[in-house]
Amino acid sequence: MNRLFSKAIHPMKKFSPTALFVALFLLCATASAQTLLNVSYDVSREFYKDYNAAFVANYKKTTGKDVKIDQSHGGSSAQARAVNDGLDADVVTMNTPTDIEFLAQNGVVAKDWSKKFPGNASPTSSTMLFMVRNGNPKGIKDWDDLAKSGLQVILVNPKTGGNGRMAYLAAWTYARHSGKTDAEAAEFVKKIFKNVPVLAKGGREATTIFLQRQLGDVLVTFESEVVPIEKEYGHGKVEVIHPSVSIVAENPVAVVERTAKKKASGELAQAYLNYLYSDEAQEIAAKHALRPRSPELLKKYASTLKPMKLIPVSEYFGSMAEAQKIHFDDGGQFDKIYSMK
After folding, report:
1. Percent of the chain with pLDDT strictly greater than 70
2. Are the C-beta atoms of residues 318 and 170 closer than 8 Å to each other?
3. pTM across the whole model
4. What class does CATH assign to 128-247+309-339?
5. Are 209 and 216 in contact (CB under 8 A)?
6. Which of 45, 145, 150, 262 is the most buried (most CB within 10 A)?
């Protein structure tokens, strides 16, 4: 019996007391690390991967605490609905205010969420560009070209993703800026959507359709999609076309108050979003082709973030909330345009 007992415990001799202490310490540290879930839009995943690493390191340095950040990405409206339906996000980081406003109306985030952080709670912005195949075989230069017959345009469904809504509004803005009436702008945008063979659910799916399935002549997407495309598919696979006019697409953020109350994570969530305005985070954003708030950084990264004629949503739509109601709610202008395709 003693021999059997001795054999049973013998493997423990392989571990020194120091090794056991370190293993137990690491186990406890991992178990005690607070976890935060960031639910975000489709094409922001690479940015947040780098941002999260920077935040975790800074948070450890300044507070001495460990934190683990989880990410969830998809079409922004689908993500907002998932959070509304119970997904325990600690923060939401979207590409249009309407998705966060939807959550505010349902009591998931604060009613005054846009006043909780600087710049209407939008630490970065983006805009809509065109990506065409190498050599630009169809000679696409501006929004007018997207309305020509015989062309295939890859777009995100405005009902499921902010990427699609901003593309739609950018095309409408171009038409109005060119002197067209709202009725003429509607006809113009209708022609563009007539050239859409399939509507993607989100920005990353649109990229997959364009580059993996090789469908379409032009992809309309966020400026920030340029960097991940070049990383994944290689430099020179696409050419980037900057249209003469595009739109300011703000990237708003908010603490999910419902989760903060349940998990007592409000302080961490606030710190996570505050750090997006730091110099380090703003530079990370610029490297990922997200437009930082800093004019100096915009100038530093001008080769990627080229100066453009960018028009705010308020110019022709009043606000994103008004644009949502008129254009994207069920039975709105988009439904009328696309149902007549």
Report:
1. 90
2. no
3. 0.83
4. alpha beta
5. yes
6. 145
